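Q: Given only this backbone (397 positions), what sequence would you predict?
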């Protein structure tokens, strides 16, 4: 419409046969059209949900895409004039939405690829052949897991890990960092224990991120040749249930000398039995009871001849070690775990004649118990197990 003319003027001129030249609108480039269309999708999301799109593993894939796109648009100076007139909700100036530094420079296709979604076209407004994360994960689980043919080699690992979890030598904590994924470590993913048996050479993927091929063994006897980032995504997708199993460690359990302000927490005691049971009598110098008590050891063993835990016989105290600021139960479980291969299999009748099997007696030399105590002091004990054949502590594995 010519400057100064109204719609009524145009209609009158048309009746008079006078052509009015329409004002031409500047054409937009394809990139500008995509920017506008992309922002309009974000606006429709806001109008439908009453809030700006957010990042987060628990969010819908398209919401995460819109959140990433909005972050990019906020930094796109060339697009300000294009979309500012459409920004009725103040999205471009509202910086409350959290940003993820990893996706700052990714376009939509790269972002979707990072989230495990295949995109056939690069048009920012059209997504084709898109599979949901759940569908892709399910497909990968079915296609990527096979029977572990040498699972018998790994079964003892899982059994030992469970024992160490029960004894408090290991614990689980929420998985946080990809850097935690290393060969020899255990995780809980999808409700199953997973062991990273092998980790290949670290490479850089198309998005500039580190990755590596893994051999992961699961406690149900299956295995998967998966990428490190795939395991990371599975652990993150499990939320609080995605766990890292920590390494076994006794830590600084105790000191043989008290420091100022320290209080004695308990005592390790080593006993020998005076029982006339044939097995005990034959191996008296090797059979020891190992325990931890918060009481005076003399008081603890009083009346030993009346208790099946002491083999219904008097005992001799052959060694004691004071503890300072320590979890007594954890320490006792640790000692019993170490010497479990040498646990004495003996049955003793109680005062009523009922057969009982005491569990804290071990067929192990005193000098090995003393070595175990020293290794507990220096924090190296978690690396050792007791070998019955050599009657010595040996490195695990």
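A: Predicted residues:
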């Amino acid at each position: 419409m010519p400057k100064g003319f109204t719609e009524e003027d145009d209609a009158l001129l048309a009746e008079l046969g006078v052509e009015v030249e329409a004002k031409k609108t500047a054409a937009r480039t394809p990139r500008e059209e995509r920017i506008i269309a992309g922002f309009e999708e974000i606006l429709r999301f806001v109008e439908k949900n009453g809030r700006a799109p957010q990042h987060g593993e628990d969010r819908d894939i398209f919401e995460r895409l819109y959140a990433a796109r909005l972050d990019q648009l906020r930094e796109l100076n060339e697009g300000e004039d294009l979309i500012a007139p459409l920004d009725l909700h103040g999205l471009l100036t509202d910086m409350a939405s959290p940003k993820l530094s990893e996706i700052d420079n990714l376009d939509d296709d790269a972002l979707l690829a990072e989230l495990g979604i295949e995109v056939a076209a690069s048009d920012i407004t059209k997504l084709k052949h898109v599979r949901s994360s759940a569908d892709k994960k399910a497909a990968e689980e079915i296609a990527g897991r096979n029977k572990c043919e040498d699972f018998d080699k790994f079964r003892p690992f899982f059994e030992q890990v469970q024992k160490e979890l029960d004894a408090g030598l290991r614990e689980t904590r929420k998985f946080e960092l990809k850097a935690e994924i290393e060969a020899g470590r255990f995780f809980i993913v999808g409700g199953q224990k997973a062991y990273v048996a092998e980790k290949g050479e670290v490479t850089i993927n198309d998005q500039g991120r580190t990755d590596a091929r893994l051999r992961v063994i699961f406690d149900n006897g299956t295995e998967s040749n998966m990428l490190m980032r795939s395991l990371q995504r599975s652990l993150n997708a499990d939320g609080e249930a995605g766990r890292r199993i920590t390494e076994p460690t006794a830590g600084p359990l105790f000191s043989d000398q008290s420091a100022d302000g320290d209080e004695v927490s308990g005592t390790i005691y080593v006993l020998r039995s005076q029982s006339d049971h044939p097995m005990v009598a034959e191996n008296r110098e090797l059979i020891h009871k190992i325990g931890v008590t918060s009481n005076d050891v003399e008081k603890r063993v009083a009346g030993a001849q009346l208790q099946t835990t002491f083999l219904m016989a008097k005992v001799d105290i052959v060694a004691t070690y004071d503890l300072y600021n320590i979890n007594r139960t954890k320490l006792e479980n640790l000692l019993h775990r170490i010497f479990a291969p040498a646990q004495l299999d003996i049955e003793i009748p109680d005062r009523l004649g009922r057969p009982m099997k005491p569990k804290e007696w071990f067929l192990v030399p005193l000098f090995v118990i003393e070595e175990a105590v020293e290794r507990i002091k220096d924090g190296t004990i978690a690396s050792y197990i007791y070998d019955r054949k050599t009657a010595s502590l040996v490195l695990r594995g």
